[in-house]
Amino acid sequence: MNKEFLYHEIAAGIANQITSGVLKNGERLPSVRKLCKDHRVSMNTAKRVFLELEAQSLIDSKPQSGYFVSQRPSFRLPLPEVSRPLLIAYDNEPDELISKVYTDMGNEELTLFSISAPSGDLLPLAKLKKEIIQATTALKEGGTGYEHLQGNVKLRRMIAVRSLGWGGDLHEDELVTTNGAMNAVSLCLMTVGKPGDTIAMESPCYPGTLQLAISLGFKVLELPTHPTTGLEIAALKEAIPKINICLLVPNFNTPLGSCMPDEHKKEIVELLASHHIPLIEDDIYGDLYFGAQRPKCCKSFDKEGNVLWCSSVSKTLAPGYRVGWVAPGKYKEQLLKIKLIHSISSVSIIQESVANFLKTGRYENHLRQLRRTLQDNYQNYVQTIGEYFPEGTKTSRPQGGLALWVEFNKRIDTRKLYDLAIKQRISIAPGRMFTLQDQFQNCMRLCIGLPWSVEIKQKLKQLGNLAKSIASASV
Amino acid sequence: MNKEFLYHEIAAGIANQITSGVLKNGERLPSVRKLCKDHRVSMNTAKRVFLELEAQSLIDSKPQSGYFVSQRPSFRLPLPEVSRPLLIAYDNEPDELISKVYTDMGNEELTLFSISAPSGDLLPLAKLKKEIIQATTALKEGGTGYEHLQGNVKLRRMIAVRSLGWGGDLHEDELVTTNGAMNAVSLCLMTVGKPGDTIAMESPCYPGTLQLAISLGFKVLELPTHPTTGLEIAALKEAIPKINICLLVPNFNTPLGSCMPDEHKKEIVELLASHHIPLIEDDIYGDLYFGAQRPKCCKSFDKEGNVLWCSSVSKTLAPGYRVGWVAPGKYKEQLLKIKLIHSISSVSIIQESVANFLKTGRYENHLRQLRRTLQDNYQNYVQTIGEYFPEGTKTSRPQGGLALWVEFNKRIDTRKLYDLAIKQRISIAPGRMFTLQDQFQNCMRLCIGLPWSVEIKQKLKQLGNLAKSIASASV
């Protein structure tokens, strides 16, 4: 039996026992060793079963004692279906909706469920401030000079060190800093592509990437995507002859929060390399895993330098700092040239501050806390949605990241919901933003990066009521 | 008689009297009123004569007393000819030289005559540091959040206020902040152009713009340019049917340091508007005038919103801050969309700091001092070049900015000079970088933004000796 399938099956079995109440809250689970024996699987497969269940918030690990059914009942709503976009490359202008929703960004009067970013309340503001002051003092000429084109070497070194955690084994010289991850992706696309090329992406996918691709004159081929395991490999295989570039967010992508299994990553990297199709990997959410371990990246399996791995601290530390980077593999020299052309260099002070922050253990502490908060938020959101949203509402089951994907029944158009909600000072991201095609009209993305509170719960309730009013008006 | 011609003629007459010794150092010049009477010209024309002479460092103004022949003899070398590029649109890859020279950027072991930026020694480092600390404290959430897409409103307001000084009369809402001026120009090109378009530029021109244009799939038409008055209007008129966009640096452009007379600016703005050709104006050096008054911009004459005015603080305050902006006229909405796509937002902390610095009088004080230093540097450079460089060396007469253009006789190839100089830890910018065509091989640009010292003089002497060695080897 396929390994992949096997561990999913075992995990699903245990999950079922938990949700049906056969296994009680707080009850101890069998050991990894016992699971191996019972199911005749390898240690690795057994471990993955537990990681999977932990990622779903169904179990907790206790050091030295093993795994236990989560004390907190994990509330779940039905999962949306695998997306089924038309397998045609589109190059039409993205929906106007994107610009409309993004102008809400930075508007302090709104509850911004629409923007995928952690709230400032969840960030280590005082420590970051200290780093900025120190960097301004420590840098030659106060950081006013042009920085080296490749970017702050301390920052690159810290990113390289951290890459060991996901099997990246990068060297500082393989990295180039950028003004945030979007800038990294933009530089990558200009490096490996040319107008007229077709890019394969997940569907639904991040609206900014759609806009970027179209503005650079590319066509976009959206591919079927599973709400928990991400891009469907079979569809990618079929699409190979039609595509020039592949752009994926394998770890906790927005809006689905899906996480591609390592086996899939490996297979995709090999498939694309064998066809000389560059893979741009956007890994901005990789550090925000809900499970026990950070997932690997496609870059972890890259032997040919064919993967351009992009990330940033925008989703974990400070969206407004615009500190990102890319490990462009064999495309480094070309990408450096493009960076020089479009922005000359990055902001020294901010890069130095982030480098110093990463150097201490504080970043790990902060991430641990942030992950726990996001996971709790996810549970609170889903429970509230179950309580107040129209019957039949489905949600994704993110295994990390900042996004929750909500699917209403077909009668509820989320563009209409946006218009109603904004009047109540609530901003959401309607599903139509996440595609160039006519799909996801009944979906929306909610950011779970806002600190949970009575007010947030109230705003979700309001959203639910508005959705119900649309549903009943259209009967 | 044409006004333009008239004031040039009167100024040239007085200049001649000064350089030939008829008017002695320190001698008082006739008053503005007397000049009006003698030459039967308007007050405005008479004033412009004095401004012109002051810009050429030939005379000084003393408050309440009038104008005097400069105490310091203005040393001059012959002026290079008007450039004569082939009037064919090129889309070949820019010379490899550009990348080679730019990798020297940030290398602390080199004397960087090659990079057009003020040395940190000439910048108000302590005050800037203070502003950064204050901004980090004052900003909501320490500036970690995404900034509003259009950029920091205080910064935009200050730029608008300052625009009154050059007849811009901008409103904060007409401005968009960017990551430096190159990023502004890049956004402008993506906003108004499409691959295959032809852009008219000055020749020689800034290498980064050439790279940018080619990388975006444009063709470049280089136009004849006068070393002191800039772009030749007749050539632009002839080129109109062939071009889609015009990109100029009218004030103290690099590498020539020329300044386009206001009449030319007005004429060009009207000409381009009547043919619906957008004008991207890069005004990064505008505040670095050596004369008495800041020159106007093309934007000052823009009635149709057809001029996209770009600038930054990279040449005046802090290259490494990457704070720039654009007033995109009627293209604002499109440009905002492009900004969102490629970089989402700018760095809040740095923008806030610069805004606060501009708000105080300190910026004006700093600029006054910086201008004086640059003007003195220019004199020192030219004198040293006259002393140590091969006979027949010509130099531009910048009326502002950071660049000095040096033209050797044809036997001296500055690419060879670069290779020899870099071994002595001196980096220069060979002329071939500033064109897509086969020209300027015997030219180079020197940055005059390094503080004058015995060492700098020594490095220039070394350069001169190397140039002589090339000349004699090729006889």
TrEMBL record, chains A, B:
CDD domains: AAT_like, WHTH_GntR. GO terms for molecular function: DNA binding; DNA-binding transcription factor activity; pyridoxal phosphate binding. Keywords: DNA-binding, Pyridoxal phosphate, Transcription, Transcription regulation. It holds the Pfam family GntR. Residues 4-72 form the HTH gntR-type domain. In the C-terminal section; belongs to the class-I pyridoxal-phosphate-dependent aminotransferase family. This is Transcriptional regulator, GntR family. It comes from Pedobacter caeni.
